[in-house]
Amino acid sequence: MRATMKSFRVRLIAFGIFVVVILLLAGGVFVVQAQAQATPQQPVPFPHVNMVQSGIPCLFCHADAIRSPTAGIPSVEKCMGCHKFIATNTPAIQKVADYYQRGQPIPWVRVNRLPRFVYFSHQVHVVAGALNCERCHGDVGRMTEFQPVARMTMGWCLNCHNAQPEADRLKDCVVCHR
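Above: the chain sequence. Below: its structure as tokens.
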């Protein structure tokens, strides 16, 4: 009887530990997913809507998207190329000018992040794939604050790859995992 009771307690404790571990893992996944969708605080507010309403295309500031894997962030010098003359008295542009005068880049915080084991090239998607920026980033032209609009998961990418004319080739693992 005593051995049976001890065995029962051991199993009960093991089950309790198992439940706690599962809850901690589930909580961790929830926190990571919530952070992936959170909009980080940027050092300078940047309403993309103002740029788009002024007729400035995405590729003016993110020109690397057509020639490299990353879209790139414009240098503070590029920003000041226009903002030496435009909206110079606004607090946001004055912050940009401060970075420029100190010779420092603006420390923008990355919004979209893929795992390190995923290869993604803006050039391939924008040039060869002829996809527009909104396809993945949403209607940035209406955003006062850039925010992620999709969880860029493998399933999300595969849904798009499946809809392409060369779907079979695009589903080969080495296309994205190098």
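The chain is about 50% helix and 0% strand.
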